[in-house]
């Protein structure tokens, strides 16, 4: 939802059982997952 442009406030309004720390935890998780990505290069001949 954040990637689609929603704000944290909008998310919290739609999901009142969530807390700001939940959104922050998701962002930390996403950053860690992206940080482990490997980009393989392929040589085209």
In short, what is this structure?
By secondary structure, this protein is mainly alpha-helical.
Could you explain the architecture of this structure?
It is a single chain. By secondary structure, the protein is an all-alpha fold. The chain is 51% helix and 0% strand. It has 2 helices and no strands. The chain has helices at residues 8-14, 20-35.
Number of strands: 0
Rg is 16 Å
Described by strand count, sense and barrel closure, the largest sheet is: none
Helix content: 40-55%
Beta-strand level of the residues, as a percent range? under 5%
**What structural category characterises the helix and strand content?**
mainly alpha
Q: Kindly state the mean pLDDT as a whole number?
A: 88
Overall number of domains: 1
Shape: elongated
Distance between the termini: 41 Å
Number of helices: 2
Residue windows where pLDDT falls under 50 for at least 5 positions: none
Secondary-structure element series: HH
List keywords for this structure.
single chain; mainly alpha
